[in-house]
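Narrative summary of target 7.
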Amino acid sequence: MTPSPGPGAGDVSPSGAPGPAEPATAASSLKAAPPGSGGAVLRCEDLRKRFGTRQAVDGISFEIARGETYGLLGPNGAGKTTTISMVCGILARDGGTVVVDGKPLDVGTTSAKAAIGLVPQDLAIYPDLTARENLVFFGRLYGLGGRDLAARADEVLDVVDLADRARERTEHYSGGMKRRLNIAVGLLHRPRLLVLDEPTVGVDPQSRNAILTSVEALSAQGMGILYTTHYMEEAERLCARVGIIDEGRIIAEGTRRELVALVGGLDKISLAATGDIKAAAAEVRALEGVREVTPHEGGLDLLVVEARRLLPRVLEAVSRDGVSVRSVEVVEPDLEAVFLHLTGKALRD
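Modeled conformation, tokenized:
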């Protein structure tokens, strides 16, 4: 049996997205409109929330620029879901401010909520409707209609690579296809900020890659994205910046390179080479950014800062001594190591 819709203006729609107060206007482009104030599409300051004696969120602040994908990472129980609920105006906060697209947001506000597309971890689509029928249903809740809604449904189906399955009932969809349709629902009203709460949980590798590709495209087109995941490789691939949250606080924030620097991580370059290895080692030791050089019978191992930037100079230096390089391997410290160092926990704990 299909559940009844029933959200009012400013409530959360069955898709999990905050419902708009005013009808949205459809257009032909997927690009998000420019944010209303400066470059930040989301600005949160000093968010706080307590449940009884437990301080679930304790002074969280961050912002997301237009076209930026920001990863919020933390172990289970760290405060991610509570933070997202306050950002989207679903849960009342005890303190702090949220500004979306230049508009202050609270539980009772509506215009700021209309700028958010929330894609929850729990699926919220109707199994007895086709993909297109689901999109038409939710689109009407957003105030879309007629040819504009039909065109918009086609656009978002293309984004999530479901255009060829649009007329199939979703009860026959795989788990990955359902998650992709969930994202399409969140995109219907052209949000300035897209909130994706673990969108790849339980999906097959093909659907997972399709979701990540779609997120990359949306970010490139100017949409701000708040992304949570339990898969560190997704954060490595998608997120320009990452905030690591633990026990209700952001304990570290920055680019991957900045976070790795917090724990003193260096990149490793391994060269398999033949020739005068000793002379080549002396050459590369003189390069700025090289911290350690270990020559061996099969080549050189180097510990360096920013290997990808330094690698061309390393190869140029060793070639001056007639060394022939057969292969190169670059190993960079990853976010998993940083996360474990800062929290003492694995991301999936």
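The domain at 40-259 is CATH 3.40.50.300 (Rossmann fold).
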